[in-house]
Amino acid sequence: MVNENPLILKRGLEDEEGAMLLQKERATSSVRPEAMATFIFGGQEALSRRLRALAFIESDPVFDTKDRNYLDQKSRYMRSSEKVVHLVLKCRRLGIPFTQMLDILNVALDEITPTDVHTKMAIPSLMHQTTPEQRAKWLPLAENFRIICAYAQTELGHGSNVRALETIATYEPSSQSFILHSPRLESAKWWPGGLGKSATHAIVLARLLLGGKDRGLHSFIVQLRDLRDHTPLPGVTLGDIGPKLGFMSVDNGFCLFDHVRVPREHMLMGLAEISPDGHYRKRKGANGGEKILYGAMLDVRAGLVERGGATLARALTVAIRYSAVRRQGYAPSPPGKLSQSAPLELQVLDYPTQQHALMPLLAWSFALQITGQFMRRRYKAYLRELDLSLLPEVHALSSGLKALTGEVVSQGVDVCRRMCGGHGYLLASGLPEVFSNYTAVQTFEGTAQVLEPQLARFILRLSMAPTERPKGSGRGAATAAKAPFALSSDFDYVPLAAGKTFVRCRAATPVAFLDPAFQIEAYEARVSALLLLAREEVEADLRGGEGGLAASMMKNGVLFGRLSRAHCQLVLLRRFHEAVAREEGRVTMTTARNGGLDGEGNGGRIDRGAADGSEEGESEDREGSVTVGPAEVRVLRNLCHLFALSGMERDMAEFRARDYLSSGQAEMVSREVLRLNRTVRAEAVSLVDAWLLSDKLLGSALGRADGRVYGALFEEALRSPLNDKEVSKAYTLHWRRLLMAGDCAWGNARL
Amino acid sequence: MVNENPLILKRGLEDEEGAMLLQKERATSSVRPEAMATFIFGGQEALSRRLRALAFIESDPVFDTKDRNYLDQKSRYMRSSEKVVHLVLKCRRLGIPFTQMLDILNVALDEITPTDVHTKMAIPSLMHQTTPEQRAKWLPLAENFRIICAYAQTELGHGSNVRALETIATYEPSSQSFILHSPRLESAKWWPGGLGKSATHAIVLARLLLGGKDRGLHSFIVQLRDLRDHTPLPGVTLGDIGPKLGFMSVDNGFCLFDHVRVPREHMLMGLAEISPDGHYRKRKGANGGEKILYGAMLDVRAGLVERGGATLARALTVAIRYSAVRRQGYAPSPPGKLSQSAPLELQVLDYPTQQHALMPLLAWSFALQITGQFMRRRYKAYLRELDLSLLPEVHALSSGLKALTGEVVSQGVDVCRRMCGGHGYLLASGLPEVFSNYTAVQTFEGTAQVLEPQLARFILRLSMAPTERPKGSGRGAATAAKAPFALSSDFDYVPLAAGKTFVRCRAATPVAFLDPAFQIEAYEARVSALLLLAREEVEADLRGGEGGLAASMMKNGVLFGRLSRAHCQLVLLRRFHEAVAREEGRVTMTTARNGGLDGEGNGGRIDRGAADGSEEGESEDREGSVTVGPAEVRVLRNLCHLFALSGMERDMAEFRARDYLSSGQAEMVSREVLRLNRTVRAEAVSLVDAWLLSDKLLGSALGRADGRVYGALFEEALRSPLNDKEVSKAYTLHWRRLLMAGDCAWGNARL
Predict the structure, then answer these.
(1) From start to end of A466-612, where are the E strands?
(2) Helix (H) / strand (E) containing A640
(3) Where are the stretches annotated Disordered (chains A, B) (predicted)?
């Protein structure tokens, strides 16, 4: 057996060098990871919650992920089922409440489970779309996992365009029930997680037919399987949709209904109701319910942005640690002399190309985390106050941000893998798993092509009806009265867009680009130029009379995508600067810590939203926590600069539109990015340490906190199923036939 | 059982609509796929060879790939082993010669096999690095698969920097043998395909130690396993390195040597020899051998470029056909009325955003195919004439092209997947498999970070020693005498770079950008600006005296990467224009078909290399083939324009450097790209049809030639291992415990 080979056993302990290199990186960094962690996770309390959840998982071998790389689809589904059941039963035993259990499931388990949709989509629907009686019946069943409820919206032939869904629910007053039916193959529900083999029920979106009239989409809670033996109920055809790039641990399913009878009370009637005799009525105050639902989607999207930051940080933890440990190039042994102690090769992390690939992504991980947390806090404030005035803005923004995050993080994770060279391609690097799962974000719940026009249309409309829109300084409160909805200062550039496109950047030296006001001006100029161009195109189309706004939006979809991304980057930059400014304020005014200084020192650009957003984080971490000090704040400031300038470099053509930046200024930006890369590189290992991702969670031989990369790679290799026998069955069954064929039956061991 | 469900059986035949849509696309296209295929594959003869190879594979069920998505690592290795053995034995039986067998293996089998390295790396080494006696002994053994030979270069701790390899071969005159040894864990050979469980031998790169003196890297043929029973020989520790993102069908392996004795005659002595008493001597004329080896690498890289084009075409075949079949958006049923024949949704392919993602990639697939074939023809000419004068140029170019191709194709395949929406994420789409395997190109045999500086350095050196370089028109022949090596006109811009950066583009209308000369000027201006900037940086560094050229190259690595990519795109554009011009020449001058008009009508920009390159293609397809006509040539011309302009749009910031393009011209380019996208879209289905990828080869439910997408998706889903039982074991073992826990043992089937 290979793994009893003394040669390997003896050598497995040799790679001290990686350990030494990471120690050096940590010793020379000015960042204290534990302080930075408090910042990243939004205060000591949130951090402690997170650590408790992680400890819950990591102390229990059932939750181990060591077997992951070696399991096929079926085994992965079995394992994830085992994990959920064990987790829920254990929490039940220990008296851990539902919300805390969700923390553990979502943050710490590190597994996409068959019940994710049950907890994230079905339960919120049961909470917000139901009548009190329905809620009283179904919610406890769902929260206690006495039923498992899929959320069945998407159909085989219809994704984002929900208006085209084909499943029909025909109300039959005589039996007081709906007849649920899938008219053709393309109407099969397709994709819902947990639907294939796990769910007992599903919330099914179907077109309600009432006395021959189409009342549009409604939700029904439909039982799928017998509760005694889990067999599908009559008329229900269920199954798994097959293996996927990722999400192997989930039974994404299909479901066809053949005239399935559903009791009247199983329509979710929080928003509209049907009387026994088939009278349809919108419910009073249902609007609020719809908006709460709407808000729930915002929470999901905020979570996607935040999770995007964390996912990127995870891939970066692997890539940055490995880049510090891996040596390559530039120090060959002198020819003609062999020395075991030949001059060492360089750390890969010292290559400017490596830094250029990784450091801007590190800045992105912080930007996304900060912005995701901000969105989540805003959502909570929104729930608390039911102040709906900012809802249209926030909803539009969340569409654009979801799309942008999906793109940046997916590509970023793939970059991290490639920056690990060949070894990144091994599942043992942990990176293919991260990519394969995360990239689903790019297609589920709307692709960029579907989402970005939503934000772009919002911006365009603001710009096209200037009389209805707030002018000038956007402090929402002042303008909410005039406008049908409030607007944060993020949109200040809109009414001024035309003017901004004649501005030229005044930066004469690289250092000028390190002024936040300068950066925000640049991002505003860029988005303004795109907006102006979009407006010109649309106005020309409307004058041409070939269809309305929708047709023109479709025609100019590429441009609208750019507009959406540009706006989102402006918002990310603002949130990043605001967060850093807050920390700067804290650090410089330690004596006035509880005063009202948060957010000052940011060029007066703090808006109402930002101030709102900071509240909660504040109140939490007054005592007993390690907070960010001057050194960490300096690093955060540099990360923020790098976010700004690397974004400018990446989309330089847009910043050069209408010559806002000159060719020479563009070169300056590139030079400054290289300098910032070097600066951040010095702190990079400590910065990823601050995300507190344990070796267990990372599941990566390359990303080990102790730097013992090569021994870990070997250990993983020895676990390859192909190594279970010294001579493979492939030899006995196949290769032997070739090697020994014909006249060449080897009589000798050696040639 | 799900798959006996009559509901599904009945409905499986319903999706006629996809068939109808693809028929419509084909009927309205002006491209005849069979004619275009002749162009794509370089003539009727090459096409016929290809089709014969495909028929060989597709007629035999052993080679089927239907099981692929459901197999784990071990089973995939077993299957690929079975396929190779079956293929070789069958060819042996049918008397098919080795080279033709390789065609079948490499082009048609559609499987990455454990013997790919044996045939692509080891056999060429045995051919070119050996003495005639060694050749006579080893080559027949290898070509007949009586041995399987891995190629063991890369080590666990060392990839591209071969100078740092640690494996040692110490010559011992007393026993006339080498002692092969891996001094530490990091020196383990790591990654070679087939090394883990299949190979009997390996060509091992090791540092030759001779009387205490390091003679640098040499190759040794080392027996690894006993030929009677396949057990590893004493001192050899072998194994598989574990599961990977792709390449699951190959046993990439590791190998550690513990003082393994290798006979003197097993050093490959084609280039240098050791006498029995340990006297070392470079062989006379060995230089030629080295250059042939060098050439072999070029052939591999040409193959990578060509395969890149074909891989992209494969992903595009799926994405474009599915985009034609898939409908989404813009035609909801009117509210309040339900109609089974509601107005149809739009074909996704009609969205400009979809076109913008896919059409430029379609242009790339042609550009890569054309250029890869050109490189391959040049390699053959090179072998024929042993004219080495262009070798430095070609080698440098191949480095840059390998890196660029890997990046564009990997990302392009991923784009194709995402453009299929959620369904692209299913393995049944066939796309994850393509991505997972192809993306390995980005890291194996040198990452972009390692390769691009090689081309950039070549360009930089040309520009820095102008007195030694040919000036003006680069027709290689004229200048070869003066220069140490010849140079094609691809580098004409180099001596003129400084001048070019003051030029401004004169295009005043979008149509002006459709002039090939204009496009080439633009690409030359762009690469010139990068070159000039690079030179300024390097000269400043050299003046500053902080290290030499190597240090400055490292410092400016990001810029040098851009320079490499810009040059490669210029070359791709030139080859594309030349190829189209040749076809235009043929079509317009049908009467003078055999005359010397090839390549005319291209603004006089055809260089010697291009003329060389066209020869072979010519001589092949005179008779009996369907050749490209005026309609196809027009489409090719548009594809070429799209390649040029979408490339400009993508890297617009570089084309705007030193204001070569103005902001307004940049907008024109974007508009023109959208127009070209629409034009190419009309031919898109026929253009992918022309790659002649059968449904079997595609292995994609979404890419079916007949458009019956939804039925195929269902059929694939029914094959999911999770569907083998109606009630999953996950229920019996796990979910049941949760659903029925505590006080809630369900007595009833329904709630």
Answers:
(1) none
(2) helix A630-650
(3) 591-627
Closest chain A residue to the Cα of B258, Cα to Cα? A7
Residues of A taking part in catalysis = 445
- Dihedral (CA of A39, A42, A43, A46) sign: negative
Instruction: Provide ipTM, 2 decimals.
Output: 0.92
Tokens of A517: 């006001």
Please tell me the distance from the alpha carbon of residue A711 to that of residue A700, in angstroms, as a whole number.
12
Which H or E run contains A136? helix A132-143
Identity at A686, one-letter amino acid code: S
**Which range (A34-38, A349-353, B416-420, B596-600) has the least confidence?**
B596-600
What residue of B is the nearest CA neighbor of A449? B353
What is the identity of the amino acid at A30? S
Structure confidence at residue B619 (pLDDT): 39
Q: Which amino acid is at A303?
A: G
Amino acid (1-letter code) at residue B283: R
Sequence-ordered list of residues with C-beta below 8 angstroms from that of A229, at least 6 positions apart, any chain: B727
How many other C-beta atoms can be found within 10 angstroms of the C-beta atom of residue A466? 12
> What spatial distance separates the first Cα and last Cα of chain B, rounded to whole Å?
25
Shortest CA distance to A551 belongs to which of B349, B330, B672, B681?
Answer: B330
The pLDDT value given to residue B293: 65
- Are the C-beta atoms of residues B91 and B101 closer than 8 Å to each other? yes
Residue B214 has pLDDT above 90, yes or no: yes
CB contact (8 A) between residue A735 and residue B7:
no
**DSSP-assigned letter for residue B744:** -
Cβ of A744 within 8 Å of Cβ of B352? The answer is no
Per-residue pLDDT, B416: 98
Residue range B491-518, pLDDT digits in tens: 999 988 877 667 899 999 999 999 999 9
The C-alpha angle A689, A694, A700, rounded to 5 degrees, equals 100
Closest by CA position to A583, among listed A32, A26, A36? A36
The stretches in chain A having pLDDT less than 50 are 1-4, 6-7, 9, 12-13, 331-341, 467-483, 591, 593-622
Q: Hey, CA dihedral for B521, B525, B526, B528, is it positive or negative?
A: positive
Query: Phi/psi at A467 (nearest 5 deg)?
Result: -70, -30
CB contact under 8 A, B237 and A8: yes
Contact partners, residue B604, CB within 8 Å, separation at least 6: none
**What is the identity of the amino acid at A486?**
A
| CA–CA gap between residue A436 and residue B728 (Å, rounded) | 25
Identified catalytic residue from B445, B521, B578, B616: B445
Chain A neighbors of B191, CB-CB under 8 A: 422
Q: Tokens 């998706």 correspond to what residue?
A: B713
Q: Which residues contact A79 (CB under 8 A, 6 or more apart)?
A: A67, A68, A71, A111, A249
Q: What is the pLDDT of residues B30-61, one digit of tens each?
A: 999 999 999 999 999 999 999 999 999 999 99
